[in-house]
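[SOLVED] Need 3D model of a two-part complex

Original post:
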Amino acid sequence: MHSPVSARRIGEWALRVLSLALLGVILMRAWCPSTRSGRYERAQQARIAMSLPRWTMTTPAQIHLALDSVLPPYERDWIAAIERAGTNVTWSSPHISAIAATLTRMADPFGTSELSAYAKRGSVMIVRDRVGPIDSVAVGGGGGVRLEIPGASTRIGASVNGSTAWAAAPDSILFKRLLVEGAASWETKFTIAALAERGWKVDALTHVAPGVDVRDGNATAPDTSRYAAIIAVDSSASLIARGANSFVRDGGGLITLRDASMIGPRAAASILLERRADGDVRASRVGEGRVMRVGYKDLWRQRMTDDDTVPDPVAAHRAWLARAVASVAYAPRIAVRPDSLADPAPLADMVDRIGARSGPTGAESPLRSEVPSAVLFGILLVSLLLELASRRLRGAR
Amino acid sequence: MSRFVFCTAQYDSGDWDSAPLVPANLIDSVAQYTSIAIAPSGVNVALASDAILDYPLVYVTGHLPVRFSAVERRNIRKLIDRGGMIFMDDHNHDIDGVFHKTAFEEITIALAKLSDVPNDHELYRAFFKFDDGPPTTSQELNGWGDNLVHKNLQGVMRDGHIALLYSSKDYSSEWNYHPESKRFNTIDNTRFGVNIIVYALTR
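Solution:
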């Protein structure tokens, strides 16, 4: 059995060894920063941006990210780079759900694009452009949302719970002209007016009397090199009737209104697009082109309606016709330079870059996180003081 | 396709039906000279009624002071905003007359100030050609009313089109006869009426 004095000396030696060991660790940390790589870091989303520079310099062994929403692209890029430098990155989130969006240009000079987006059923999706929110929509049963976005926005965002998918149109449309032909009537007049107001360049041929026509533009035989779509208003549209078959087979679009239904090629099958009490709208594909048969009576009355539920009847009439033309028009597409800021599927991209959602692994649990050097220095001081006090109290120098 | 229906506006003040044979005469001319599908008889529709919007060309005439109600003014604006056109004719042929003065005021309140329609406007080439602008009327040439031959028609323009055409020439008297009597004219004096209808339907 050791005497109290020898036990005290053993304790003093232990404190000396501990002090030297701590001093060695502190000096090594100071001289060799890479030796700090055994550290574990955990960060909430709000602190990630400010932590990135430090993580870049210290390369911790593991970083765990507690996320509320998908990381923005530059943070994803940065963290992926840190991961490639040897840091094990994991993340978890109780809130994040998948969101994805695509943007397709419509053949509409007004610049309308179609946004197709996916998000969790029942969530509220906020649609935004670069300036701010422009609309919101509840995500229905299938999880899919389809919206027409007016104006020439090049990039549209769809946000759910703070995660935003940014979609950019991959191409631009080469707009050709429209040919509208019919007898002098309100239908012909307001069809021409609505499409011109929408921004289409319209060649119009209005038959007033035998041998007397009113021409706007240079109405020529239908040809896909000049026209995107041709619209026959009534059975007097003889110019269109003569060239409609070949025009459609070459890829052009044909719209026939109620009194021109006998014009153009017949398809074996057609799909029903709309139905009202006075008729329906059917579409079919013939060769390379598309045909839409509008069975509604007096479309022009949409423009003149005094229905309080339609706030702007002129715009509604214009939009209806523009949508009809966009759905059949021959519109060659030109690829544009990819938008570097597009982020159509942020969660998928994040998983691709830094892996799937996971908790911190046991080997790098928070309990093993590195003790800061300041604490080690404090322990060193206490150890030295205890050793010194012990020696003085027993009378040694 | 619905046929074109000639519409005469009934307004609360004044004598809106002062030229009852004009519609039939113009309908006859349109049917005779053009292939426009036109209803064989016109309609009289209250300017204060929503039904007026079913007729994008509206004919307004009278001798007496014109004072539109708020609803009538609103409907005039609606009709014009949606692409319709109004043809208003002073049946007095008198720029010092009550119809002219009050109609000018009402048009200014409801739409805008009237300005001269240039005599080379496409209205004068819409179907028949009138190289000198609006054709004269026998009322002008005989010195009735204000004893003036008016050089121009007036109009309110919208997007380059005539939205409201105003005449001091008294076409309402000129065209107010039975179509059967047209055969006695050397030149059909309703031809300019055809131009107005063709213009409204095609521009």
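Edit: The two ends of chain B are 19 Å apart (CA to CA).
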